[in-house]
């Protein structure tokens, strides 16, 4: 019997390999594979509303500019830690090359090619988004990574003082490192993936 952690950060009794996790093909929910453990992903309604709003905006931009992307939720991607250990992450929102997404429609396994854009909406385990996933997505080579901290829940190290809701857009530079821009209030969010995006931080943060 495989033990599953119901909340992020919970410990389970036995460790799995990445290959064992992929072989399980879990379909009764959303699961990440982190440090040899299966972690069930659960979100609040407000969290889901933020994701849905961003999904709608991205999908509109793809249609308007006829971009070769698709927007999806619940997509697993394979990442690695600094020691080479394989993980499986599920960004809250993924923008993916359309041709790549449709190239193997029956595949269950996590994507191994970098997606174009990942969005994480922060929750109680905020350090996962700001630190662990930041490093893993950077290492994988995801060109654009958004952190939407609508609760202003991260530490002052990231949010400053006073802490206010913030959208962080991390763009991969020529050296493979993220350069971070912060957007608050009526700041217009600048996206490399969606250069004509008309969206302020307040619009997505005040859902």
Write the layout of secondary structure elements.
Elements: H1 18-24, E1 31-34, E2 37-40, H2 45-65, E3 69-72, E4 77-80, E5 86-89, E6 93-97, H3 98-102, E7 117-121, H4 126-140, E8 144-149, H5 156-159, E9 166-172, E10 178-183, H6 201-205
Parallel strand pairs: 7-8
Antiparallel strand pairs: 1-2, 3-6, 4-5, 6-7, 8-9, 9-10
Structure commentary:
There is one protein chain. The chain has 207 residues and is of the alpha+beta class. The chain contains six helices and ten strands, in the order H-E-E-H-E-E-E-E-H-E-H-E-H-E-E-H. It has helices at residues 18-24, 45-65, 98-102, 126-140, 156-159, 201-205, and strands spanning 31-34, 37-40, 69-72, 77-80, 86-89, 93-97, 117-121, 144-149, 166-172, 178-183. It has a six-stranded mixed β-sheet with strand order 3-6-7-8-9-10, with helices on both faces. It has a two-stranded antiparallel ribbon with strand order 1-2. A hairpin with a 2-residue loop joins strand 1 and strand 2. Mean pLDDT is 92; it is low at 1-13.
């Amino acid at each position: 019997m495989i033990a599953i952690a119901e909340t992020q950060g919970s410990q389970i009794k036995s460790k799995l390999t990445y290959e064992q996790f992929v072989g399980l093909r879990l379909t009764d929910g959303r699961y990440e594979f982190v440090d040899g453990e299966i972690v069930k992903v659960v979100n609040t309604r407000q969290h889901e509303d933020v994701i849905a709003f961003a999904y709608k905006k991205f999908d509109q931009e793809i249609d308007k500019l006829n971009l070769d992307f698709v927007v999806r939720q619940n997509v697993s991607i394979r990442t690695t830690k600094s020691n080479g250990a394989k993980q499986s992450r599920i960004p809250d929102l993924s923008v993916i090359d359309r041709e790549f997404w449709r190239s193997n429609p029956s595949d269950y396994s996590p994507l191994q090619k970098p997606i174009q854009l990942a969005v994480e909406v922060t929750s109680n385990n905020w350090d996962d988004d700001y630190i662990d996933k930041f490093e893993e997505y950077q290492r994988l080579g995801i060109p654009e990574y958004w952190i939407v901290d609508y609760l202003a829940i991260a530490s002052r190290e990231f949010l400053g003082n006073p802490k206010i809701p913030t959208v962080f857009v991390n763009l991969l530079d020529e050296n493979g490192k993220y350069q971070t821009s912060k957007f608050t209030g009526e700041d217009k969010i600048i996206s490399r993936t969606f250069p004509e995006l008309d969206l302020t931080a307040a619009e997505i943060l005040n859902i």
